[in-house]
Amino acid sequence: MPTGLAVNTRLLDRITSIAILDVLRTSSIAMETTLANTNALATLLSEWPQPVISDYELGCMILRVSEAPLTRARYTELVELLGTVKLITPHKDFAEGAVYTIFGKTDAMPAAIACSADPFAYLSHLSAMEFHGITDRLPKTLYLCTPPSAEWSREARSRMEKELGPRLREYTSANLPVLRNVLKTKIGHSTLSIMRRSKMGAFKIVKGRAIRVATIARTFLDMLREPESCGGMQHVVDTYKEYASSYLTQICNEIDQHGSAVDKVRAGYLLTEVCGLHHETIDSWRKFAQRGGSRKLDPHEEYANHYSDGWQLSINVPSLAANNSGDE
Prior knowledge:
The longest helix has 17 residues. The protein starts with 8 loop residues before the first helix and ends with a strand. The strands form 4 sheets. Strands 4-5-7-6 form a 4-stranded mixed β-sheet. Strands 1-3-2 form a 3-stranded antiparallel β-sheet. The protein is elongated and about 80 Å long. It has 2 domains: about 200 residues, no CATH class; about 110 residues, no CATH class. It has about 325 residues and is α+β, with helices and mostly antiparallel strands.
């Protein structure tokens, strides 16, 4: 082994094995350069904040530690070496070579893995409700929002330009992995339900965890739009009854800024007639009340003959219909 190289402790135990020495002896890269690169990569991987790393992120990392021009062959050789010493392991729930688990981080939750693998995804709907503690459900499905394919690709290109800067051309010319959407249908025991949104919702980054999650206010808005992804409309009603009062101002501000007319009517009905809450912002939504076949509380159920006079809304949720005197 070349002298004068400070090898990362985690790597040291591994590179002394016959297998690693064989890799280095047969490598087309000089042994000392390989050790220096691998040592630097081991340090960067130990500092990596996410539980997994994509092939694109590995490419950026290898480019960062390489003084000579990076080639696809060199990238492949270094990745294989990192795999041989078990600093990275291909993740079984992604295409081969697309995502790797990092040494010491094998117990990561599916939510953290998903948010690491897709830099634009965030937890939403019932998964966000669970995170915020406003549901007693324990969903086996992981609900995520991420941009549609074309928008995702534009965001990815912009991100690559920002991260690679003047070395972008060098990187792409070497046919190195690009940032791409790698999420599939499952991570561990969790089935993924991925919703494509052209307008990214309001989310927050959870400090100390590799997770992005819809804000509490956006979660209440999503309940109105896709109740079937939030435990069903009855569960949405129950959640509004129990928790809306605690977040009333935030809910009103979110729906006022980002909700459609029918979102405001649905929210107005639930907040005032079901929850008995009052807020000046809600009063401004009454101008959106109008009769129509699409104006129903549950957007995915049939129109019902029971309706709210105040909000001109069909109340097609059986548990609430008896409380509304309006009939057609």
